[in-house]
Amino acid sequence: LSPAPPISSGSLLAEGRLTSDGGETISKGVLAVNNAGALGPGVPFTGTASVAANGRGTLKWVTSTAGTVNYAVYFVSNQEAFVVQTDANNLSSGMILAQQGGPFDNTSVSGSLGFNAFVENTFANQIGQVSADGAGLFTAGNFDVNLTTSQTAGQALTSGSYTVASDGSGTATI
Question: Taking the model in full, what pTM does it have?
Answer without folding.
Answer: 0.64
